[in-house]
Amino acid sequence: MHRPLAITDDQDLLDDLLRVAAAAGTEIDVVGTASHARPYWTRAPLVIVGGEIADDLAATGPPPRQNVLLVTRAVNDPDMWRRCVSLGARTVLELPEAERLLVEELGELADPVTRSGTVVCVTGGRGGVGATVLAASLALTAAREGARTLLIDADPLGGGIDVVLGQEEAMGARWPDIAGREGRVSYSALQDALPTFGDLTVLSWHRGEPTGIPREAMRAVLDAARRGCDPVVVDLPRSVGDSESEALSRATATLVVVQADVRGTLAAAQSLALLRRHTGDLRAVLRSGSLSPEVVAATVDVPCAGVLPEVRGLAETLDRGDPPPLGRAPLGRFCSDLLSKLAS
Q1: Name one GO cellular component term (predicted).
Q2: pLDDT beyond 60 at 114
Q3: CATH number, domain with residue 71
């Protein structure tokens, strides 16, 4: 695979380009004179031309091609746009202001979209209805069926979804380690940093004072996941702040676990009124109770995605450090069927 090409004889600009390439997780070929660029010109997936060498390069008559960027450290130099047109470049990027855009351009080559990145958010219509267990079970089921899966614990007060998996001692980063990230993140780098078990990667919380998740960090993680895995399961708290809104806005579907009794249904109706401001496809997953699925679905005014099977001794299983019983067990079959419906 050919690498992006940088054509410049400005050492300061070259230093900037090498630093940006490193941030994007890629390497670039470098040519210091216009005459030496010709062999690389057509085969490089992206060509970055320094503004100081653009006229010399245009004088060599390079064949027209796409994905040429003119990059300069000069600010508001009107002559740069003339050089941009003469080269047939797509745009002019002024550094350092445009560094993030250049990281994005290089990052797309280093980490292209390979998966569809279906995002499924899971939350409870009220507390204690098992939304976290459902989120963990969906992610485990998807991974066991061969899908590269990311499970995101977005609830800092939930005790850690890694505990539900029996993996709280697993080595790897937690939210506080990456909460400062923004901009582009390589999914491979994210996966390397986080606890990973087969096809399942987990982003959970530490055992310390809870902190919030910045919107930019949630966006960076979800963008990386979109490029590298499918599905992404996000366990959300019942409140909706900036990071939760970011996840909900990207959700293919949002599952709300509803206890099928009067109080549970009324609480879920209030939660759904809030969620509708942030996301589109809402579905209820019911816990058995005194009300029928039809009555609950009509009351909360969202379609019913199914009724969760009751798992005898689930609390004891989790307390032993074992994950929820899946596979051919009723909960496993339920999750497999639900994932199939969400993918269709």
Answers
A1: cytosol
A2: no
A3: 3.40.50.2300
